Amino acid sequence: MPKVSEDHLAARRSQILDGARSCFAEYGYDGATVRRLEEVTGLSRGAIFHHFKDKDGLFLALAHEDATRMADVVAEEGLVQVMRDLLAQPEQFDWLGTRLEIARRLRTDPEFRRSWSQRSAELTDATLARLARQKSAGRLRDDVPTDVLIEYLDLVLDGLVARIASGQAGDNLSAVLDLVEESVRRRD
């Protein structure tokens, strides 16, 4: 049997993740059956599960990839910028459906909650580092603990995702994000 290159394996893994992202977004976790995953990826279940232990492993890998992308933006520009990008171009964010599915599974699946908390640390760490840099530079409020700011921004992000995913994105959401940003800035 010929040896498959690392580039080929990485491309195949990426193909699976891209197809799975759209499948999970359209059908949710439960509706993203193996048959549907085969259809959207154009690959057999054997090919899919050669790269991922099971459907849960595939979903967690996808969620981790999306959290990593968000962490990159957070590290450079902050969590409010992630929200602004989402608001400006929601069609560019295939992770909307994934984020909603993560929220549902965190509430209903203790094993998933355990696995996700291990994998979501990167986004939390990026947010913590960004907030610490902003506080050190005197740009953020110093009368509110950093962990409270993180909870606040996460809550706003979750609300924004739910609003956009439900098709209720209003005209005032950009102004709401301005208000959120202003509320965490240092007052002189």
List the helices and strands and how they pair.
Layout lengths: L5 H26 L2 H8 L3 H7 L3 H23 L1 H10 L6 H14 L1 H10 L1 H16 L9 H20 L7 H12 L4
Helix pairs in contact: 1-2, 1-4, 1-6, 4-5, 4-6, 4-7, 4-8, 5-9, 5-10, 6-7, 6-9, 8-9
Contiguous low-pLDDT stretches (5 residues minimum) are none
Our measurement of the CA-to-CA distance between the termini, rounded to an integer number of angstroms, reads: 69 Å
* H and E string: HHHHHHHHHH
Largest sheet: none
Number of helices: 10
Number of strands: 0
Q: Structural class of the secondary structure composition?
A: mainly alpha
Q: What gyration radius follows from the Cα positions, in whole Å?
A: 19 Å
Strand content: under 5%
Averaged pLDDT, please?
Answer: 86
Shape: elongated
**Helix percentage range:** over 70%
